[in-house]
Amino acid sequence: MTKLDEKLARIRAGKYKRSDFIIADAKDGDMGAGVLGAAPKRAPDGTRLRGKTRAEYLDDIEAVVKQGIVDVMLVSASNLELLHERGVFKKSKVKPVIRANDTTDCWGLVRHGVYPKLASRPFRTASLPRVMYNAAAPLKAPGAKKIYGTDLGLYSITMMNDLDSDLRTMEAFRDFREEAALNGFKYFLEVFNPNTPHNMEREHLGEYINDSLLRCLAGVMKADRPQFLKIVYNGPKALEELAAYDPDLVIGILGGGGGTNRDTFELLHQAERYGARVALFGRKINQAEAPLTLLTFMRKVTDGTITPEEAVRAYHGELQKLGLKPFRSLEEDRVITEEPLKKGMLKAA
User: Fold this and answer.
1) How confident is the model over 41-54, as pLDDT tens digits?
2) Domain coordinates in residue numbering, the chain
3) Which stretches of 163-258 are DSSP H helices?
4) Which domain of life is it from (predicted)?
């Protein structure tokens, strides 16, 4: 049993405690970029030296797994293969998962690319039978053979509020569920906000995503439903609405852009407060001055032993001890910059 299995079991049984909050590190940047998929290698004063190599990226992933604070490590299928060759997960309770598809809006870090400006289209690189069993085709008896890579992956959809685009996305999602069932593969579902103009006010996005998500799962029976969700935090109202509508849905939020460290800690705090039970952060961890130190305080925030404001101050104190120059001054790093988080602060007040 991994930590993820244990925590999901308690959450579904109605026995959730704050220590059951699930933290995932999204180290799947290579699925959307090339050389820049990993965080840059920096000097202690923060100066960017160069892009990290693939081997250095794998070293970073291994360090996070060994630290043991996260519950889930999300990587590309090709990097998972190399991590298994290193024996990274052999004695770990951290669950390895892969990005099972790579929609075109995930290609945003390709240098000189124009993909983020275009409406997202569904696409898949990873082969499920290869990831699960190192086989070219589904086994006749899924589950009869030892798992080669992993039996869990992230499937991503982007709702565009456009009939042709969303129909194509839903058809691809249906095909994926059918292939997953043939292979005995489980998944969690990521739902992105539209990546191009969407004919809605910003405050309406949460309602649109909630309705779209529930609609696309309405015809899906338990055997084919996602293990949990990963959605954009569109503010406390939208998150509370979704959590209250169907308690059987385990809701997770994604980290989004870099932002300040107060944004990072505040997002965790508000997500847990308003009904999320999972957080999947990529850039917020990957691009931090000291990712392992940041993860330590992320866990303290979700456990409720420290406030987001206190976490920022403590994190800066640890950076000083490590001899690392912060990217922002303490005063700058204490500022909440993301609009949904500002709304959450107003609601709490």
Assistant:
1) 999 998 998 989 99
2) 3-348
3) 163-183, 205-217, 236-245
4) Bacteria
